[in-house]
Design brief:
The chain is mainly alpha-helical. The protein is built from 14 helices and 6 strands. The two termini are about 30 Å apart.
Length: about 375
Amino acid sequence: MTERFFHEYLSRYKPFKGYWNYEDGCLLLGCTRMFRASGNPEYAEFVLRYLSQRVTADGHIPTYLTDAHSLDSFHCGRVLFFAAELTGEERYRRAAAWIAEQIRSHPRTKSGFCWHKQIYPEQIWIDGVYMAAPFFAEYAAAVHDERIYSEIGRWFSFVEANMRDKKNGLHFHALDEARKQTWADPLTGLSRSHWLRGEGWYLMALTDTAALLPDSQASLRAQLHRALRQAVTAVLPYRTPNGMYLQVIDRADVPENYEETSGSLMVSYAMMQGAAAGALDAGAYHAGAETLEAVRQHQLIQTDSGLRLTGICSAAGLGGAGNRDGSCAYYLSEPVTENDPKGVGALMLAEAARLQTGQRTAPRKSAV
């Protein structure tokens, strides 16, 4: 049923935005993984068709919003490496190199960390680590530039030192180094809540970046695997009886809280992928596979118009025009939608991980 859903979805898909964006990137990356796992050329054809319309012959991306200085923009660049490998076309390598160059002009906080976006000065959002770190790890491998890895390691070290809740091990959504935002704690600069998709982005950043590191970066890989084990140990106790996770992870006491699909799938993927890499034990794989099955059973719904993936938080952020305050009530106020590419892409990642790792990981019921 899952692959039938993917076929229906791709045949009807319209780009999420008119410019280069991370939402489309979520779906494109999912397609690359499903192609690797299943061998179905439909997934690769979708990716190449999308990119061929957006990357010029000289490697330029006309719809890339350079002035936005958004870490989100790096994420879609990951599929350029896939396209270059599959087609041999130089334009995709040039495009990846051009995107990597954008980091030079990216504004940074006093501690040297990249702002999440131009419109969010001095702010570090945990999803930004996922948007940028795996791209730069893959770029570093492609151009054989070992210097990039030290910067990547510094990003993860910063998050662990400054954005991890010392009480429960979960991670906060964001940090305002300037301590000016209304959502930020005046002493720590941290936001207030543990948002599921934020935690999911970070777990995937750890697994994906570690998988892209060469043998010369064994120490950095070990660092990321340690952080992954800590993060998984922290999130597992909050799994619901259905096997999923709540929109605000640790607030089961709030009646309006709900099982959110995209973040649950991200956690599922990271657990299965992390177990396959040897960073997690088979118990983590089993927990991740159970979450994937829970989504398939409860959130992938057959309707008269086709299959629908439901229960996806449309978007969430902090501050801005909506004065998003980072409270539990705020995260629960955001619209819940269906068939959003952030959820569908995560379903593709999790399903591909199941297909690729299911046999050789031999999951069993056990605790992490």
